[in-house]
Design goal:
This protein is α+β, with helices and mostly antiparallel strands. The protein has 1 helix and 3 strands; from the N terminus they run βββα.
Length: 64
């Protein structure tokens, strides 16, 4: 895992087409802005895991 330090309004660029910007730091919370192409899905981890679980369940149901 790469760990970087960034201040408010500083950015990280991934693969020339995804930019992550530190929008706000308030206490122990950090707000991030993410600019990515429309064909690149961006989800919070808990949403991503729920999508994967749903897809897995659909796949299992279609095999029966």
């Amino acid at each position: 895992m790469l760990v970087l330090s960034r201040k408010k309004n500083e950015s990280i660029v991934i693969n020339d087409n995804i930019t992550i910007v530190v929008v706000e730091i308030r206490g122990d919370k950090v707000r991030l802005g993410i600019e990515a192409p429309k064909d690149v899905p961006v989800h919070r981890k808990e949403i991503f895991e729920a999508i994967q679980a749903s897809q897995q369940q659909q796949q299992e149901n279609s095999e029966v």
